[in-house]
């Protein structure tokens, strides 16, 4: 399983709308932060062991796509942190965590 990168506000809006029918998971990733690189490794490890499910996985690079990152924060009312993983159902944040808590084990416990 792989993730989609979100770079445009229209892509984010489509993901938010789609969350009514299909759960969405987004990793907010900073390309300049070592903790974020660890979280990205954990996200990729989780996805490598995850069979196709009824969930879409995405990634937003917070520095390169700041307007998207800011809109996610506003729409979901989840204070921005990075790295940060957000599980979305029905246009609402169902679960989120950040920093060293973004682990494969934590994702398996919540998402699986």
From TrEMBL:
It comes from the Bacteria. This is Bacillithiol system redox-active protein YtxJ. It holds the Pfam family BrxC. InterPro entries: BrxC.
């Amino acid at each position: 399983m792989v993730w989609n990168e979100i770079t445009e506000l229209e892509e984010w809006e489509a993901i938010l709308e789609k969350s009514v029918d299909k759960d969405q998971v987004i990793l907010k990733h900073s390309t300049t932060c070592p903790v974020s690189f660890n979280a990205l490794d954990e996200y990729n490890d989780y996805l490598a062991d995850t069979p196709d499910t009824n969930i879409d996985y995405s990634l937003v690079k917070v520095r390169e796509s700041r307007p998207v990152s800011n809109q996610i924060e506003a729409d979901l009312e989840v204070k921005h942190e990075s790295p940060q993983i957000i599980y979305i159902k029905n246009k609402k944040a169902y679960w989120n965590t950040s920093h060293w808590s973004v682990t494969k084990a934590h994702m398996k416990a919540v998402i699986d």
